[in-house]
Design goal:
Blueprint: H1 18-24, H2 27-30, H3 34-50, H4 56-74, H5 87-99, H6 112-148, E1 153-158, E2 161-167, H7 168-193, E3 195-196, H8 212-218, E4 223-224, H9 228-233, H10 236-262, E5 270-271, H11 290-313, H12 328-351, E6 353-354, H13 356-364, H14 370-379, H15 384-401, H16 410-416, H17 424-427, H18 430-435, H19 445-455
Parallel strand pairs: 3-4
Antiparallel strand pairs: 1-2, 5-6
The protein binds arginine.
């Protein structure tokens, strides 16, 4: 095969326009699939020999040639060329250069369409396993931070207005649970993508007596695709991964946002590690939370990647279309962004320092014990609705006189209801309010302790 001639060039009368070559090439993006491409080709060659479609000698040459190519790529000695479009043809071209005629037999009973579908599944399967480890490690880091600051009380918010006191550890466990669902989504995705598409040919299957079950065993696929047309045109597994990632980034960006708020002077709840913050080129006093800001910011591109691929897939006629080549940038960039962001977030959680006094002090203002006073009255026989409106009047009184509820004297309190006794003061502390929320899922210390124990932290 002469240089400059396409592997598919037979039927063409003239050479491809240079601009078209540049426009259609994907090698700059898909070269990262080289290991998976080679693993798939080795399994395919072994199967071809086993089925006597090619000779054992040729298969051996192919396998050795591919292994040498892999070493070459890993040592930076591989001459990637955009004239060969993509990673599949770059490797095949090099194989033929290295081992001659035997190399030309590798593509028997195979198409780039089932080849690229295989490579993508192998790639994402590996990356998902890494991501699952990173997810679990962030979850555990959150649980460890919860343990470190187990009894720290902070204001819980609704509408970003102070609402009720909660344990900081309970708040962190909200993220532990979000990430647990992310983990489930990712592992569901992993399970569904674990299907061998190779053997589907371009779209219709192959006339050769291939053994797909053998290839599946070699590549550790528990299942084989059942419809060749679907196998080469399906990218559901990528869409699923991108949508699971979009939801993961909703969670990461909410946590990032809270870290940014909490580390501000206005909240002053936490201190982020210096080594994870940056300064300002103009204002010498600044310490900026750039890392959580970038996690929040990168969420935009992860959402965008999902939208991009949904749009690529929508309305594509069966089976393969070149549009599908556009699946790679969204996929690869989402994988890279998720891995980097999970790692960064884990470090932020590991190193943040909680200012427990500031958090507790913040629970003292804002009438965060108003619901507790209502509950107290309910325990003394009032209906919740009348207790609610009675406490509303207490709050109004306090606002008018610049007092907190617990600063009112017993005489003042009794004016609102004779049922209020002096035990109310102990009842209204933030600590007592937290401790009473014992029902499953509530913020009581005992509940958080149980969660930590369940996780073995
Ligand atoms: N680079 C292509 C892709 O990523 C590989 C498949 C090409 N198949 C084809 N019929 N042109 O989709």
């Amino acid at each position: 095969m002469a240089r400059g001639r396409k592997l598919w060039g037979g039927r063409f009368a003239s050479q491809t326009e240079n601009s078209v070559e540049a426009f259609t090439a994907s090698i700059d993006v898909d070269s990262r699939l080289y290991r998976h491409d080679i693993a798939g080709s080795i399994a395919h060659a072994k199967m071809l020999a086993r089925q006597r479609i090619i000779s054992a000698r040729d298969a051996k040459r192919i396998v050795r040639g591919l292994q040498a190519i892999q070493r070459g790529i890993e040592q930076g000695r591989f001459p990637f060329s955009s004239a060969d479009e993509d990673i599949h043809m770059n490797i095949e071209r090099r194989l033929v250069q290295k081992i001659g005629a035997a190399g030309e037999k590798l593509h028997t009973a195979r198409s780039r369409n089932d080849q690229v579908a295989l490579d993508l599944r192998l790639y994402l399967r590996e990356e998902l396993r890494t991501l699952l480890v990173l997810l679990e490690s962030l979850r555990r880091e959150l649980a460890r931070a919860a343990k470190r600051y187990l009894d720290v009380i902070m204001p819980g918010y609704t509408h970003l207005q102070r609402a009720q006191p909660v344990l900081f550890s309970h708040h962190l466990f909200a993220y532990v649970d979000m990430l647990d669902r992310d983990r489930e989504r990712m592992s569901g995705c992993l399970e569904r993508l674990n299907v061998l598409p190779l053997g589907s040919g371009a779209l219709a299957g192959t006339t050769f007596p291939i053994d797909r079950a053998y290839v599946a065993r070699l590549l550790d696929f528990p299942r084989i695709s059942k419809n060749s047309i679907d196998a080469v045109s399906d990218r559901d597994f990528v869409l699923e991964f991108l949508s699971a990632s979009a939801i993961l980034f909703v969670h990461l960006s909410r946590l990032a946002e809270e870290m940014i708020l909490w580390s501000s002077e206005e909240f002053g709840f936490i201190e982020l590690p210096d080594r994870y913050c940056t300064g300002s080129s103009m204002m010498p006093q600044k310490k900026n939370p750039d890392v959580p800001e970038l996690i929040r910011g990168k969420t935009g591109r992860v959402f965008g990647h999902l939208q991009a691929l949904l749009t690529v897939m929508k309305g594509l006629p069966l089976a393969y279309n070149r549009d599908l080549q556009e699946d790679k940038i969204p996929l690869f960039d989402t994988v890279d962004t998720a891995k980097a962001s999970l790692g960064m977030m884990r470090e932020l959680v590991r190193q943040l320092r909680v200012k427990r006094e500031r958090m507790l002090a913040a629970t003292q203002d804002g009438f965060m014990n108003a619901t507790d006073l209502a509950d107290y009255l309910v325990r003394h026989g009032l209906s919740f609705r009348s207790a609610h409106s009675l406490v509303g009047r207490v709050v109004r009184f306090c606002l008018d006189h610049h007092r907190r509820i617990e600063e009112l004297s017993l005489t003042e309190l009794k004016r609102f209801s004779p049922k209020i006794g002096k035990d109310v003061y102990a009842y209204l502390t933030a600590e007592a309010a937290v401790q009473r929320r014992l029902a499953v899922g509530g913020t009581a210390l005992a509940n958080v302790r149980r969660r930590l124990k369940e996780m073995g932290v």
